[in-house]
Every structure is written in C-alpha cells, then in structure tokens.
Design a protein that fits this description.
The chain is an alpha/beta fold. It has 2 domains: 159 residues, Rossmann fold; 179 residues, 3-Layer(aba) Sandwich (Rossmann fold), CATH 3.40.50.150. The protein is 23% helix and 32% strand. The chain has a 7-stranded mixed sheet with strand order 3-2-1-4-5-7-6, with helices on both faces. It has a 7-stranded mixed sheet with strand order 12-11-10-13-16-18-17, sandwiched between helices. Strands 8-9 form a two-stranded antiparallel sheet. Strand 17 and strand 18 form a beta hairpin. Helix 9 packs parallel to helix 10. The longest helix has 13 residues. Bound molecules: S-adenosylmethionine (SAM). S-adenosylmethionine (SAM) binds next to helix 7.
Length: 345
C-alpha cells in the first residue's frame, strides 16, 4: 500500500508493530487514510478528526467494529480510555499543544505518546511538546524528512478546560466593535486578515441568505451580521476548531447564525443570495488551489436567482479564468498591493 501513502504514513507503516494490541487514539494532521489500516494491528482504534474533508474520506471507507471515528473540536466521550496516542503533527505548534491537552486526559497511566510529522512541520521540536507529559522523549525512526518520536506518560494530565485555549480580540466596525474568539491554529486567530479587511471595506449592501464560506473564527460573518442584522447568516468551514471559534464569536456578540461543517460546497444547500469568501489555498503544509477552483466552478449552482459571489484572493492567484467560465459577469471591485476583491453574478 506504500505507494499511495504520505511520507509520514510510510514511516508509521514500517513501525506499526509499536501499536500492536493497544487501544489506540489517533489525531492531528491526517494526510491520507492510513490510520484505518492500524485497525488490523491495534486492538481498537479511535480517530479524532478535526478536518471534515478527512473525516468524510474515512467515513466512506470500509471499517471494522473496532473503529470509532469522531469529527469535533474536543472529544465527546471523556470516559473512554486508551493505551496510546498517536498525534500526527498539525501545522501550528499551538494546535499540537491544544490536541495534547485535550486528548491526554483520555490516556491510561504510563500510556505511550507518539508524535509523527515532517521536519518542515516542526517534528524536531517534539521533545518540547512532550516535556509536559513524559520524562524525556526519544526518536524511534526517521526517513524521508519525517520522524517518529515517543515518550511515556508519567503524570496525570491536567483536566482539559477549553476556555483556557480561546484567544479574543476586538475589531472596530463603523462606530462599534465586534469581538472575535479563536481556538489554536484557526486562521486570523490573532488579528483581522488583510484580505478579509479589503473584503469587509467594500461589501455591497446584503440581504437574504448570506454564506461565509471558510469562516475561520467567524470574522467576516460577524462583521456582516453587525452591519446587516436582518440577514440569514450561515458560516461553514472544514476545520472543527474554526467552527467552534465561529460559534463562540457569534455568541460573544449576541448574534445568531447557522454554523456547520462543509468541505467547500459539499454540505451547502442551494438558494444562497450572497456567497462571501476569503477562500483557502493551503491544505496542511501544502499549497492547494484545486478546492477553490472547483468551488468557483460549482458556486453558481448554489446561488439563488440573482445571487452573487464575493471573493477576495491574493492578487497572484489565477482565479479569473474560472470566474469567467462559471459566471455570466465578474469584475474586480477593489484591490490593493496584495489582494483583489471579485464580485461575480
Ligand atoms: C483564508 S482563511 C479565511 C478565514 C476567515 N474567513 C477570515 O477571513 O479570517 C480560509 C478558511 O478556509 C478554511 N478551509 C480550508 N479548506 C476548506 C475547505 N475545503 N472547505 C471549507 N473551508 C476550508 C480554513 O480552515 C480557513 O478557515
């Protein structure tokens, strides 16, 4: 199976005997479906997934009764217990710290903690991440610029408290402010993105059903709800931590909206009056344009009659040919040195 696997999964495959007979919890940046294969080695496998794209792919694959699969921002079953945690290092260090903090309370005393990831993703800092949990970590294997690091849990981890991981900031909107709440690793966790700022400065008047696609911490949706309290707001993202951040952002401002997971337009019902987005062009550590290109192509099918799409993107991204093909009209309604704001109808 190796040829289809990421370098990290290949490293895990050749070390899979480490997981034999264990009740294994797997989380973090799952680049492929290799985690499912560990069902054949471990006594049971639980995959805690914060990425809806991977969750859907795992869900669609055949599995055995000794597999449980969850998509959320924190584990729901806090009574479950595991002998080993395998964390596939996510892009943001703070997200690794968050996942260790929320998952280690599910481990039995003396459990194995495994961290795997690419050098460019920071796996060489694994000893620092693990220092809170064990007495010294060791590198078990490395290949193809990836490493697998281990330590044994030697202390009872502190009870997880989600509130301690939420950061807050306020952004001025007209004569007031909107409060933003963000969990680790979520886009715009500390400040308003320049592209989103350009979009918000030039948004036309809105009405009806408004979708903030790839909502992150809910910045765009919350500012728009502040300006146009009568809109029917919907926010979606692929990342469970982003969804929880958006829920908290809306609540912090006394706003209402439907917040739900969607892999681009996968879970979006037709009939949107305004599709508003600062779309992604990364997946994990890699640049990836295809999801946004496919979203542009499919977007007209989700719009109501007369519906519009407002999309902000780095000026170097080549979305116009896709807009040209998918929409009757499109134009750049604002731009600066780095970003362009497109309106398509
Ligand atoms: C450039 S950020 C914009 C975040 C937020 N709207 C803002 O302005 O701060 C793009 C967002 O898209 C999300 N995303 C990435 N891939 C996605 C996908 N396939 N479907 C939906 N959202 C996705 C990311 O998690 C991230 O929150």
């Amino acid at each position: 199976m190796s040829h289809a696997l990421s370098p990290v999964s290949q490293l895990l495959e050749r070390n899979q005997s480490l997981f034999a007979g264990k009740r294994l919890l797997i989380a973090g940046y799952l680049e492929d479906n290799f985690a499912l294969h560990l069902q054949t080695v471990a006594s049971c496998v639980s995959i805690f997934c914060t990425d809806y794209h991977r969750y859907r792919a795992l869900q669609a694959s055949p599995s055995s009764p000794n597999l449980t699969l969850e998509f959320d921002h924190q584990p729901r079953d806090t009574d479950a217990r595991y002998d080993a945690l395998l964390l596939l290092l996510p892009k943001a260090k703070r997200e690794s710290q968050y996942l260790l903090a929320c998952l280690t309370p599910l481990l039995t005393p003396g459990a194995d903690l495994f961290l795997a990831g690419e050098n460019r993703g920071g796996i060489n800092g694994a000893d620092k991440l693990l220092a809170l949990y064990g007495d010294g970590s060791s590198k078990l294997d490395s290949a193809r610029r990836c490493s697998l690091v281990h330590c044994r849990l030697n202390a009872e981890p502190a009870r997880f408290c989600l509130e301690q991981w939420v950061t807050n900031y306020a952004i001025p909107v007209d004569t007031s402010t909107v409060n933003i709440c963000a969990l680790p690793g979520v886009f715009s966790a500390d400040a308003l993105d320049e592209g989103s700022a350009l979009l918000l400065a030039h948004t036309p008047p809105l009405h009806g059903r408004v979708l903030d696609l790839g909502c992150g911490a809910g910045v765009i949706g919350a500012v728009l709800a502040h300006r146009y309290p009568d809109i029917k707001l919907e926010l979606c993202d692929i990342n469970a931590l982003a969804l929880e951040s958006s829920r908290r952002t809306l609540a912090a401002n006394g706003m209402h909206g439907k917040v739900h997971a969607s892999d681009m337009l996968s879970d979006i019902a037709p009939g949107i009056d305004f599709l508003i987005t600062n779309p992604p062009f990364h997946a994990g550590l890699n640049t990836l344009y295809a999801p946004t290109e496919q979203m542009i192509t499919a977007a007209p099918g989700r719009l109501a009659k007369g519906g519009k799409m407002l999309l902000v993107a780095n000026a170097f991204l080549r979305y116009p040919p896709y807009l040209e093909r998918a929409f009757e009209r499109h134009s750049v309604i604002a731009e600066n040195r780095k970003f362009r704001l497109y309106l398509a109808s």
